[in-house]
Amino acid sequence: MPIHDFTSQRLYLDTPLSPGATVACTPEQANYLRNVLRMGDGDALLVFNGRDGEWKAALAQRGKRNLDLEIGEQMRPQEGGPDIDYLFAPLKRSRLDYMVQKATEMGVARLHPVITRHTQAERVNTERMRANAIEAAEQCGILRIPEVAEPMKLERVLEGWDASRRLIFCDEAAEVKSPVEALRALLPPHSRGEVGEGGTAEQQSSGFPPPLTPPRKGEGNCDSPLAVLIGPEGGFAREEREMLIAKPYALRLSLGPRIMRADTAAVAVLALVNSVLGDWH
Amino acid sequence: MPIHDFTSQRLYLDTPLSPGATVACTPEQANYLRNVLRMGDGDALLVFNGRDGEWKAALAQRGKRNLDLEIGEQMRPQEGGPDIDYLFAPLKRSRLDYMVQKATEMGVARLHPVITRHTQAERVNTERMRANAIEAAEQCGILRIPEVAEPMKLERVLEGWDASRRLIFCDEAAEVKSPVEALRALLPPHSRGEVGEGGTAEQQSSGFPPPLTPPRKGEGNCDSPLAVLIGPEGGFAREEREMLIAKPYALRLSLGPRIMRADTAAVAVLALVNSVLGDWH
User: Fold this and answer.
1) Distances from the Cα of B151 to the Cα of B86, B124, B155, B225, angstroms
2) Are the beta carbons of A106 and B268 separated by less than 8 Å?
3) Does the distance separating the beta carbons of B107 and A180 come in below 8 Å?
4) pLDDT digits (tens, 9 = 90+) for B4-48
5) What is the C-alpha separation between A123 and B24, in angstroms, rounded?
6) Which ipTM score applies to this complex?
7) Which of A83, A268, B6, B277 could disulfide-link to B45, CB 3.0 to 4.6 Å?
8) Which regions of A19-157 does DSSP assign to beta strands (E)?
9) What pTM does this model have?
């Protein structure tokens, strides 16, 4: 029987992975591999668990009804990524799915639903969020699955905030200014080059909190912990905006003169943060 | 009868708009206004046509079956936006809808489907693209509707290219380097500040084509024409990549170490281009 190569297919397994290990498939996984992908005995695909990197795994029929995966060689070591918490006011069903997939593609470390005054969806299915994060990771070859936090009210999130984690919040009501310059101003002067427009003097002169650790050469990642917050589609309430602006660890960011939907703003700000402070170097 | 304010609702009308004008609704529009929004005689909403700005308009019943809109005061003048052509390998149905909506929110001037070697969807419904652009503009209050071009093969697009329009193409196979620095290097030295990492020396020394006109103070827009190209999900074919790299007007851009889906990459690169060269200042 010919052995087929399915190594453009990736499957998430919630189990430790090591060379020579055997993993029993769940009935859903067995159905997917045999009936959707039409894989046969000996065919190989890629598997990962979010911790141990990416591995080649071959199907092995066990008896009539059971299917094993035999773990072969490691194809890629585990990858890290920027330490970005992604906080967001949850959206309704399909748009929340989409937003979770997009944030995963953008490499965030944690997904944290935050309930604000104008939030549309109060109930959040965190299991579904996790399934969407896994699906995006499988499709895009991302090896780190973002953690999913339980929904929490904005006030409570800020009460327990670790001030060493900068909070970048996007605000449609903010004056339109270069978001790149605003993000660069979080870095120490020697690593950001000359700051152009002069619009960031206040951030430069404010002594607290200290500038971020600059991205390391080669690795590119800014070591410092970051968080990005996207508010609800109705925008932040006035009290929420004032509460956020008052926090010394918070940076209020404009995303240009046009209104964007929340899932669009998510990708836009994460692209900017990854480019200036994250691992797009 | 009470008059209700529906001015958070926007409706696109394909007709000239001026104060005091009367516009007859199509049956679809009349159905939407009366039965979906539940608007009554005298209620007002916002209308726009992509050319004449945004106007207040009041419903006026005419006979039993016809509905007019009476155009009142102008609420916002027509807005421009960056001169960005957005070129993309078309995706399948719902993901193409989504991509068109996202590009509209990001303020592109033109949507141009480009057929590449690995393009998934050969047939493109440009009417549907236009409807999605209008829907996004209605929802987000965008006053300029992007033009929709007919699909064209990549080779033909490049044959007819105006070399004064820089073509920024995203390539997963490009070395990971700061996209912000790469885009800043398109600007003349005095308007970009000190370029940090030194990774852009080749672009700085290459004399052709000349640097872009810098964004104007206040307005913020880079006057120079730009284009952004997102390839198919399978990536560019080798010959296509070589053809693009050889063009003096082309800039090959990396969007970081992770693979993204094409609609995600679209928002990411347009956020970066708007921030460095467009109107996010």
Assistant:
1) 12, 7, 12, 20
2) yes
3) no
4) 777 789 999 999 999 999 999 999 999 999 999 999 999 999 999
5) 43
6) 0.87
7) B6
8) 22-24, 44-48, 54-62, 66-76, 84-88, 110-115, 147-148, 152-153
9) 0.88
